Amino acid sequence: MTIMNGKEVSKIRNLNLKQKIDKALKTASRPPSLAVILVGEDPASLIYVESKVRQAKSVGINSIDIKLPESISEVELIKEIEKLNNDPLIDGILIQLPLPKHINEGKMLDLVHQEKDVDGFSVLNQGKLFQNRDSIISATPKGIINLIDHYGINLEGLNCTVIGRSLIVGLPISKLLIDRNATVTTCHRYTKDLISHTINADLIVVATGNINLITADMVKDGVIIIDVGINRIGKKICGDVDFENVKNKASFITPVPGGVGPMTISALLENVYQVYEDKFLK
């Protein structure tokens, strides 16, 4: 059994990214830049944003942290997004989710210019992904693929079960697995007899936010487990998989924390650099 250490893999990728940025700065007029919009004071969002900003700075990306009150109107938020869209010094724009209930998330995400949509959430980038066109790929699915590649896992011909069909993780990772010639089944809350889809799966990606959804009796020996779930029990963080019991049957498994989470931030920073590279270095 191999624990897929996203924390260590992300450090390697971030070091490589920093080296690319350092090299680029020998000819480019400025470093890459990322604007992070945070609306409200959600504790989890605050932690995520602080981590993203800190890691961006560590690789040489200039990060601008824009904190807005939870009471902000859609009209006011639109003005903030448009201002960043029109700022030539900003390469990437990230809107931290969730947004307050009175704001239409999809509308706000689609307002971010396609070329600055480093989270890959806009309808244009997601549409291009599903039409096999060049696009900015959502950070979590991209991070998952980067982690799989690091461990040399060949996806061709594998039976993969993805649990969760969100636009952020489930649907795009299903498409990326198909692109690697895997056979993919996508399950969700209305799936009947979930175990019938997991028991023969060679690889399982689970992203539902349900503690211990996947237990040892639901998987076969040698399964590969990618746990995207983040659940809090008091001060403890755990995933959607009963890690301690399932790990004994898995060939590869991601821990929570320290698995997919760091890879997501790493992929986000690589997306910022991708935009910057397209603008300055090609």
Q: Report the portion of residues in β strands.
A: 15-25%
**Element pattern in H and E:** EHEHEHEHHHEHEHEEEEHEH
Number of strands: 11
Structural class: alpha/beta
- Shape call: globular
Parts with pLDDT < 50 across at least 5 consecutive residues? none
Query: How many helices?
Result: 10
If you consult CATH, what is the topology of the largest domain? Rossmann fold
CATH class of the largest domain equals Alpha Beta
Summarize the entry for a quick read:
The chain has 282 residues and is an alpha/beta fold. The chain contains ten helices and eleven strands. It folds into two domains: 86 residues, Leucine Dehydrogenase, chain A, domain 1 (Rossmann fold, 3-Layer(aba) Sandwich); 122 residues, NAD(P)-binding Rossmann-like Domain (Rossmann fold), CATH 3.40.50.720.
